[in-house]
Amino acid sequence: EGFLSCMEDICPQLQRQRSEKASELLSNFFQCFDLEQRDSVALDELMGGLTLLCGGKKSHKLSFAFGVFDSRPEVQQQRKKRENIVHSLRGEDLFLFLRSILIVTFSCCRQSLDLSDSDVGHCIAATANMICNDVIRYQYDTRRKNRLNFDEFGQWYNEGGFERAPWLELLDLKKWVLPEDARSSRKPDEAVSSVAKAMSPALHNAEPAIPPPPPEDALDPDLFDAGIMPMDSIDEMDMILMQPSADKDSDLVNLGSPRLGQSFSLSPTPSYHASPRTPQHPPLKFHLSTNDEHGGYTLSLSHRRITHLRRILESSGLHKMEAETVCNNIIAKATKTKNPRLSREAFDTAIGSMISMHPGAREEESSLFHMLSGIFSAFEADGSDRASAIEIACGFTVLCSGKKSDKLEFAFDVLDKRKRGQLSREDMANYLKSFLTVLLNLSFTSSLNDDLHREPILTTIQGEPVDLSPRTISRVIDSGAHWATSMAFDGHIARHGSSKCVSMSFDDFAEWYTTKGYSSIPWLELLDLRKWVFTSDEAK
User: Fold this and answer.
1) Residues 508, 509, 514, CA angle at the centre, nearest 5°?
2) Distance between CA 540 and CA 534 in Å, rounded?
3) How far from 135 is each of 94, 131, 143, CA to CA, in Å?
4) Contacts of 33 (CB under 8 A, 6+ apart)
5) What is the tens place of the pLDDT at every residue in 412-443?
6) Structure confidence by residue, pLDDT tens digits, 360-372
């Protein structure tokens, strides 16, 4: 009742036109925050979440939230004295704010109705925890601090955070406008301003303990909104990850990042100090369909293996190198022939000229070069000590920086030797095979640490273990690549009604993948290291 009465004071329209529907809507918002069903909620969390429904820029709302969630005792005294305050948040405060935004966001999503309350709560907590860990990790690596202010949060956001938490864009209500709304006579700004005007009397009369929203000129307008819009930077092929799970073939894909250790629960008594017991992390699994009688394979990568890979990549800086630069350097060391070949010595020279290990990282350096040697051996299957430079270059993009779609397009162009914008079936199989070769080598190499009592790395889809001999692995890679090629070409033919198709363009492949292929070859998502290597919970 107190919340409903307060909302009527803030929005006079509700009092004049009070209806059961409006009251039910507000009650539902309140109950979403009442996680322990005590009929009371934390004021700061309620305020933080409801900013989503108010007028104003995303950056203004975030700055306001930093004042609301700054829980330091001395800040209360500074507010009473009306002193200038630089608000900052610790990890626990940031988690509560992010969770409050997600609670309101989920309450506005139709898809939430398809989930149980516990599933929704777990999804909200896990997402807030993941982003919170990423922000605090960034802050510690950058400044060796466990608190951050609004400007520092803005730097994290602009340096890649917008790709990890694109839903923060929804803080700006103008980005919720649907096409039919945009065509209506009422402008989006008017819809937003009506809410803001209704809120303004109460905000101007707010108590000193509640920080007022910052004035328009208090923030650098370019902090969050300069340049490209973050949501626009997400490529079409990555948008499939944002679709509800019901829209995907969940029986075919179990691809996701290693589950984070839950530093925070639904109603947290949080701590960022490491627990003396190491949490058990489930392995990352993905399916590899083939034409074999059993239908394909399931690959399992342990959390320990992925964490070790991350340490190696960070020590070498390889994960920050542009795929095009690395690949061109590899190809430059190859023979100048129609089908350039690369010797092991030339490969070592090319890699050695690009990588400079951190001092004191001798263990990681040894593991890296053993791992890369294994990758070269996987491409050099005929014992000639030479391999296809183009295939190695394409496969090597897996270890470089960049989005999945960028790597796919670059590798496609590299394999398109005639520069016609098309790949034949054979070239397409080699295209996919190059990625699979690196991914499977990372799964099996002894250069990466693994759990002592782990489940089998490779099994059939029915769960039967498979031997890990080089010949078997090579056959699995070849079979998986040719099956995926058949699916891509068959899908392209069916979509466009042609009876014969001898080649495909990159746009054709991208179209097939975004409409259907993602459920057939989910392993392609692993081309983006941020989706599996750089999302675990251990500090860098």
Assistant:
1) 100
2) 9
3) 9, 6, 12
4) 41, 42, 45, 46, 49, 100, 103
5) 999 998 889 999 999 999 999 999 999 999 99
6) 778 888 889 899 9
